[in-house]
Design a protein that fits this description.
5-stranded mixed sheet, 353 residues, Heat Shock Protein 90, 2 domains, 12% strand, single chain
Length: 353
């Protein structure tokens, strides 16, 4: 994986003459140039020191990139430090060869040359070593940051894949259960089978396109739940009653798709169906400050009367909530007195996208 930062790394003269390096050299060499100029009473010393610094900087950048491949017996940092050390006398000799010092004796000119070379030979290699250490440290930090970003991106992709898988499991789970209910009506020869099937087709036309959406609203969830409960009521009109209550402030809030339907379908499958008397399902969607509470209660079979437990629906929902909100969402299931079950989801109150 190539990051944009790595692809945009400067090369060639853009790296050797980067403004950051030029600025540092001008300031650093300027300090020594001012000291030499004050001792030698010549502004040329300041100019030569600055030019020497830039020449050495070019040598540092040259050996940083050329040659591209080095023999195993020499490290690039060694080549850079040696190149800087060699560049000092060469650069100083070139400056003195193409400039003149009017009013200065040959002895003074030779002394100025030796002082500049001596200071350069002492300061330049150590400065190059320091720059290499800083450069290496910055590279390590940059690579660590890149690895962190890549790991975070991979974790996010894995999380999305896991969430999509769990979300995709909701569709066949609900569909198979509903088709099983219709099959029971057909097997019993009920005249309601055709009407229930038509209602199911109408419901699926509205519900299926939303299954792959990243989020839904409680208004949409309530529409789906109302259609589902009407289907179930047609199948068992004498055993199922339901009521829906939602705060107006919750209708536009976001939630994972099929959250409310999973709670209701679980109440029908594990609460109403196993009970000979049936029961009542009550749905409440409330907003409490910055939290949203979804409560689904049923007066059917209790927790101890179900043979297969609460089923995979709530387990899948609990995992989806964990992936979507981390520890900021909870699913609680408790027994009702004298019988029945209450399933409650609490999650952040998020506005519609």
């Amino acid at each position: 994986m190539t990051t944009p930062a790595a692809a945009a790394k400067p090369r060639g003269l853009a790296l050797a003459l980067s403004w950051r390096r030029v600025r540092f050299v001008l300031i650093f060499a300027g300090v020594f140039g001012l000291v030499l100029a004050s001792h030698q009473h010549s502004a040329r010393s300041f100019v030569r020191t600055e030019l020497l610094g830039l020449f050495v900087m070019l040598a540092f950048g040259l050996w940083e990139q050329w040659p591209k491949r080095l023999p195993r017996w020499i490290a690039r940092w060694v080549l850079q430090v040696l190149g800087v050390a060699i560049a000092v006398p060469i650069g100083t000799a070139l400056m003195y060869a193409f400039s003149s010092d009017s009013g200065m004796t040959p002895e003074q000119r030779r002394l100025g040359f030796e002082v500049l070379v001596g200071i350069g030979m002492f300061v330049a290699p150590w400065t190059a070593l320091t720059a290499l250490v800083w450069q290496k440290d910055a590279m390590v930090r940059h690579q660590a940051l890149e690895f962190d970003l890549q790991r975070t991106e991979l974790e996010r992709q894995a999380l999305d894949a896991r969430l999509n898988l769990l979300q995709a499991q909701v569709a066949p789970h609900f569909l198979f259960n509903t088709l099983a209910n219709i099959q029971a009506l057909v097997d019993a020869g009920s005249p309601q089978a055709s009407a229930v099937l038509r209602s199911l087709i109408a419901y699926l036309r509205a519900a299926v396109p939303r299954l792959n959406e990243p989020s839904s609203t409680f208004a949409q969830e309530l529409d789906l739940v109302r259609a589902y409960l009407e289907l179930m009521h047609m199948r068992m009109p004498d055993r199922l009653k339901f009521s829906l209550h939602a705060d107006e402030a919750t209708l536009a809030l976001r939630c994972p798709p099929m959250t409310l339907l999973t709670l209701v379908e679980n109440a029908v499958r594990h609460g109403i169906d196993p009970s000979e008397e049936g029961g009542v399902i009550e749905i409440h969607v409330l907003r409490v400050n910055e939290r949203c509470v979804v409560r689904v209660t049923n007066t059917g079979a209790g927790l101890g009367q179900t043979v297969s437990g609460l089923g995979t629906g709530l387990s899948t929902l609990r995992e989806r909530l964990r992936l979507s909100f981390g520890g900021d969402a909870q699913l609680r299931v408790s027994a009702q007195q004298p019988h029945g079950v209450c399933a409650e989801v609490e999650l952040p109150a998020l506005g519609a996208a």
